[in-house]
Amino acid sequence: MATVETVRGPVPVEDLGTVLMHEHVFVLNEEIRRNYPHLWDEEAQVESAVRRLKALKDRGVDTIVDPTVLGLGRDIERVARINAQVDLNIVPATGLYTYNDVPFFFSMHGPGTPLGGDEPMVELFVRDITDGIAGTPIKAAFLKCAIEDALTPGVERVLHAVAETHHRTGVPITVHTNPNRGTGLVAQRVLRERGVDLGKVVIGHSGDTTDLDYLRHVIDAGSYLGMDRFGLDFLLPGDQRIATVAALAAQGLSDRMVLAHDASCHIDWLRPGVREQAMPNWHYTHLHDDVIPALREAGVTEDQLTTMLVENPRRYFTRDS
Predict the structure, then answer these.
(1) Is 176 annotated as a binding residue?
(2) Which of 52, 117, 136, 194 is the most exposed place for a label (fewest CB within 10 A)?
(3) H-type alpha helices, the chain
(4) Measuring CA to CA, which residue among 198, 203, 211 is closest to residue 241?
(5) Where are the domains of the chain?
(6) Does the annotation list 24 as a binding residue?
(7) 205 annotated to a ligand binding site
(8) Is 22 marked as binding a ligand?
(9) Residue-wise pLDDT tens digits, 209-225
(10) Is 144 known to sit in a ligand binding site?
């Protein structure tokens, strides 16, 4: 039986249950956190995370897919400590998150660098998948990369490293994209040129647009749409997000969408209180409390909801034999 690696160990893919396909536990700058400890209360943040994730479990969610990688402050031991207190599957990732350049750590070695050689990112990503993350037995189950505004040399290098790691390990890929810049299509082109099966790719944040022609192009190329930022209403109001999902479902395309919020227990990009004041719907339970009832009213059926929340994640994580 196919299994998926989670923070608590491998889980049969059939047991993932209801899945939110893009949620973070924490998004942090670890260098800031370590050098300015007055900005971080470890015990309070862990307690808050446990409480928030338990509330999500109480809504009937069984699994969250956490694309926190290098560049977003991944600390797998902290997540494991939290997960030990919550009966929820947390699926970890490997990869690198940048909109522009690679970290200086990679700037002198690898393709196109002054010293050249093989791509060191591939070795690290493969290690996370096959051996475990940060010296733990917790293995990454998928790859994460990003392309926001443009295909910079650094972003292209990460996409190439992700593609090579995908070929070596078989794990699927999630890409942060900006649909208003058309970068989902750019990511698909680069990955396709590297031989990636686009059916194993989620084009993240596709729900930030109402452009159905763009979304159909992404679907026609073979990937899943990440309709995964419910609650980020300042990027696109929630009613428009709901209408877009409903329109695609009415076209018979629920099998090409996955749902989530891209939320977190804490994100240090925002000052304290800003999220609650400016983005009150951006939290883990918004989907089940508000969005799913609205989708039903918009004509999305129970079978289509099950497809987006259960069947598509299961299919995404089932490796080809």
Answers:
(1) yes
(2) 117
(3) 30-35, 42-58, 76-83, 120-130, 153-169, 183-193, 212-220, 238-250, 274-278, 286, 292-297, 302-306, 312-317
(4) 211
(5) 3-317
(6) yes
(7) yes
(8) yes
(9) 999 999 999 999 999 99
(10) yes
